[in-house]
Amino acid sequence: ANLVRRVEGAEAAGGKLKLQCLRMGRSAPSGMVLTAGAAVAPERRNRDDFHAAVIAAAEREWRGWRCEAEGSGRRAWQRLLLQKQARLLAVVAGEAEAGADLGAMAAALAWAAEVKRRHPQGVLEGVRLIMDGGAAPAVARLRPWLRRPQPELYALDRAAGQLEPLASAEGNTAPRLRRAPPANGQQPAAETGAEAALLAEVREFCPQAVWEARADGGRRISVYGLEVARTADAAGARGEFQFGCGREASPLEEGSRPLFFQLLREVARQRVAGQDRRFPYYAAQPERWLQHLLQRDPGCLDAQMDARRVYSQVSMSEPGGREIVDLLGVDRHGRLLAIELKADEDLAFPLQGLEYWRQVRQHQAAGEFARLGYFPGVALSPLPPRLWLVAPALRWHPRSDDITHWIAPDVPWTRIGLNEEWRHSIQVVDRREAARG
Description:
This protein is an alpha+beta fold. It is built from 10 helices and 21 strands. The strands form 4 sheets. The chain has a 7-stranded mixed sheet, with helices on both faces. Strands 4-5-6-7-8-9 form a 6-stranded mixed sheet. Strands 11-12-13-14-15 form a 5-stranded antiparallel sheet. The relative contact order is 0.09. The model has no long low-confidence stretch (mean pLDDT 86).
């Protein structure tokens, strides 16, 4: 087979060639790593050993079932089909370092859907997920919100060659919700004269720059969701502010201002709708860009949204769980809306949204939104929150329907597809509601 990519950048280190590649039809480059044959052999042998251990354990633990292994090739996951006459079990196994998280669950549910298509006369009795050393808590907590047969979780003990069932973790954690940040797309005002002066400087290059609250409680200046400056967040940090994009954090001092202004000039040139998609500041953090636009005009998704009360980057943290809800809103009847955004293909996208919805539902049941200052003056409905999954219509993973099918009927989800040129103007081009029953 041939793999065709445009190489945007390359870096050689440790026997590996790290490439930044642009795939046809994509707006942002993705990473690719080429590894020398001598280095990849032990990794491949370890994976093959793990897959062999899984097959041996499955045949020993689940006697009476005929076990067929799908050729794993370069897959991170080993797929198994267990059959006993017309009865079927779909099994997926993966090593912990391959991603013991929602990606594992998505792989298992997609495989189960494929098994049902291949064997329309069979009865799918179960979906089983085997992890090397256990599964992430978020995976276990989602089980009650999935259709039956709900996935069963197992840990592989390689030394003993045994499979140990893992129980659901629902109810054993205490999630934390931060106090309400500013809502309805209105940015927090500058708190000090120095903050106001810094924003004025940034706006000389990027007029659309705004102060925003960060999920960790800090404050930042962003341009279409891309952070360019922030309040110093480390004890003993030099100066009152830092600048940089992503993980960059340089102190903003008199000597560093030329570099700061150079950054702003590049951001102002590149982070503009219709600019070259290969520009790094154009391609960076597309979900944040989309979030920025939707928070300021939520009515483009649905006229029933209360445009005055939309929160972004709401922090909801618990051990092993996801932490940030992209947008949290309410409709004109007081019903909560948990909105998850994605700009590129991701098989686990619906499960990520479901995990956020689960946390919103838990905080709703505890009455924490009113207690912590969310949605002032609104009588929140006791009905379950609505889950909106929002992504460009052409960027949905081809197997997304297989995943959304598994979401339980009592979770009211909506899949919303946007136009490809959403940076210019957002339009809803596809909307699918959850099937009932």
